[in-house]
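Researcher: Last one for today. Full complex below.
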Amino acid sequence: MDAPIAEVRDLVKRFGDFTAVDGVSFEVRPGEILGLLGPNGAGKTTIIQMLLGVVTPTAGVIQMFGLDLARHRERILQQVNFSSTYISMPYALTVEENLRVVGKLYGLTDIPRRIDEVVKKLEMEEFRNKLTRKLSSGQLTRLTLAKAILTDPKLLFLDEPTASLDPDMAHKTRSLLKEVRRSAGMSIFYTSHNMREMEEMSDRIIFLQRGKIVAQGSVEAITRRYGQRDLEEVFLKIAREK
Amino acid sequence: MKLHRIAALITRHLYLYKRSLPRVMEIFYWPFLDLVIWGFIMIYLMKFKGELSGAVTFFLGALILWDILFRAQQGITISFLEEIWSRNLMNLFASPLKPSEFLAATMAISIFKVAAVSIILVVAALTFFSYNVFIIGLWLLPFVLNLIVAGWVIGVMTTSLIMRFGQEAEVLAWGMVFLFQPISCVFYPIEVLPQWLQTIAWYNPAAHIFEGMRMVLNESGRPLLHLAWATALNVVYLTLMIGWFHYMFSVCKERGLLVRIGE
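Model: Here's the assembly. Have a good evening.
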């Protein structure tokens, strides 16, 4: 078995008295889509922020590509990217200008060609010269997705990537992500509140509850273990447990 | 440090300035108005006391030099605020960008800003008041360089505070620099200050620059000592502030503040 792309051991994050993440350990395998599930406040976003190096863990180890994040931040983040419904991009720049800046930031070569490819893949031609402030929320989501895949990351973090997309675009986006994963061998760390999407996308699922992992495995294994028909029922059962 | 990452940030701000009216006004409109209004006030005052002609020289020179410090500070702080306003901080700091590269980029942006503002002010002073700032001579270059660095010191300090305390501290971007103005002795000599404040002012690099400027304009000597003090203080303060910025950056990451600014 190939070495994991990311390995997290005993990860803890405390904010004062509040423990947001409590001794979490998992790994992301090459080319897999790992889904992270949990109710609001379970610690999903905090875990992603720690893996992206913008929040420092209280304890634990994060390794990516065999390197320790605390000591090799620059080398690791060069191979990682993310997209989230909760971030934006500079409003006064056009879509293309924003992508050009991202390309430069990551030191890409042949930026115009890469932008053309990504714009085509995400069907962004009609608004590539539009100012970001004038984009609809769906278009903005596509822009943040475009910036995430522009850099050809080996590990991609997606925080509710289809939240503001219409069903057609959401479907196309999921297909695109699966295709990118297949062609580039990219690993994807995925969160969503759409259970059907998680079932469709994820090779494995991690369930979080109050900062702890309460279940992990394939969708089938988890639904079987909890005696439920689908992930939504498992989610409700876990979320409502005291 | 990787130059392409610094260049990326500079490009991002150049795109912004290309089409943002408030940003363009910040460079052209306000400094120009400042100069014109104060210039006419000085001309008006000269009607009452003929010997004020020398004061115009001091005043307009000081105004232009103060604006250099102010814009250098703003170049750093406003660049950081732009990232908060556009909810772009996470995009930047979850990339390989280092805090030191971010600072280097904001410093470069502040140089562009200072250059643009300086050209406007120098031309306006010459056109409206026949005032040539280059009468300061070759001393102008080290004065300007030191003022830019003094602006960076205040800019990095203010940015660190905004990063730590969030958007509520945003007002510091415009207000902090004026805390230093009284002890910079921009428009009056240092001996005007009470003794205890003079002692503090001598630790302010800008005070040495403005004292030096008056020395040159008065033809009362070469301001070598003032320049040496200003340079030494700037080096010490800038080193300390860069260290402080990195410390605040790690505190913000520790407390999860970096991802919450602007929410």
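The CA atoms of residues 12 and 59 of chain A lie 5 Å apart. Strands of chain A lie at 6-15, 18-28, 33-37, 59-64, 67-68, 80-84, 155-159, 187-191, 204-209, 212-217.
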